[in-house]
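Thought: the user wants the 3D structure for the chain below. I'll pass the sequence to the structure tool as-is, report back what it returns, then summarize two notable features.
Action: structure_tool
Action Input:
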Amino acid sequence: MAWIALFLAGLLEIVWAFSMKASDGFTRPVPSLVTLVAMIASFVLLALAMRSLPLGTAYTIWTGIGAVGAFVVGIAVLGEPAAPARLAAAALIVSGIVLMKLAG
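Observation:
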């Protein structure tokens, strides 16, 4: 159950990052509200996952899902560049997450 909570927390991190961008500096009410709700839900799920998962593992995977997910959304939805160095950096993040899981 902890892994499911952690995965959902990571997905919500992507949601709040995207909605924060859409909020235009918290000047648009609906995306601002989505940001706050998704942040709170993401932190609650992370805290639940940390009840049984090690801090380093849980936090690394949570931030990794959020970072890579936001990167993918930026490219796919916002038209951000997919430069080779950026793709390599994302691959390194994913590699670190996999290694962290295997080491745990």
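Final Answer: Structure generated. The chain has four helices and no strands. The chain has one domain: 2-103.
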